[in-house]
Amino acid sequence: MASSSATPPSTSSSEAASPSVVATPDGSSGAILRSRPKQLVNDPARTGFDPETKWWMNYFKILSNQMTPEGRFHYREWRYKVHEERDCKRCEEHKDWLFTYSPVVRFLSEKIHDLDGKLDRSNVHCRRCPSILEEDGTVNRQAGGFDPNHGILICANEMRDRKHMEDTVAHEMVHAWDHLRWKMDWVGDKDLKHAACTEVSLRSLL
Ligand SMILES: [Zn+2]
């Protein structure tokens, strides 16, 4: 995920402390480097979703099939905004629990520490991540991402429950471990190498 007002951790920190390699978030790897696809903007007349009316009116339209799939996409993003605070609070609670009790998260945290890295609750960030709906109907969603300079991003609005969050955090921590272990270059067309190496690393690690 590239830009967008609400979510990204600030991008101004120095790179002196950690090796600087540019990473891309999961779910949109590589897309950042290409020109951004055109996004569909909601039109109530076309989609049946109208942010100016009550949420239950919109919900009723979904239930009675008066809203297009595009309208349902915009509706969902709209509700995520309303629930942003609640979602982030829950994400923070899960995070505390995971770093205290989750065997896999604690294990990976130690492995990263062994490589002189640091991933703990201070650099796992809970944020709302807007999805992108492209003109051709493709929906780009992401659960999380890893960036060597900022740590891990967890998309609070996409987390179904604590187990899902545990899987997501662990997945991103493996990327962090990978990064420290191999100092891999994840930019652009080297993404395939990233994926392949991750497979290997996962096996050698677990
Ligand atoms: Zn990944």
UniProtKB/TrEMBL annotation:
One of its GO terms (biological process) is mitochondrial protein processing. It is found in: Mitochondrion inner membrane. It is an enzyme of class 3 (hydrolase). It is a peripheral membrane protein. GO terms for cellular component: mitochondrial inner membrane. Residues 1-25 have a biased composition (Low complexity). Pfam families: Peptidase_M76. Transmembrane segments: none annotated. Its main location: mitochondrion. Residues 1-45 are annotated as: Disordered. Keywords: Hydrolase, Membrane, Metal-binding, Metalloprotease, Mitochondrion, Mitochondrion inner membrane, Protease. One of its GO terms (molecular function) is metal ion binding. Its EC number is 3.4.24.-. Has a dual role in the assembly of mitochondrial ATPase. Acts as a protease that removes N-terminal residues of mitochondrial ATPase CF(0) subunit 6 at the intermembrane space side. Also involved in the correct assembly of the membrane-embedded ATPase CF(0) particle, probably mediating association of subunit 6 with the subunit 9 ring. Belongs to the peptidase M76 family. This is Mitochondrial inner membrane protease ATP23. It comes from Metarhizium album (strain ARSEF 1941).
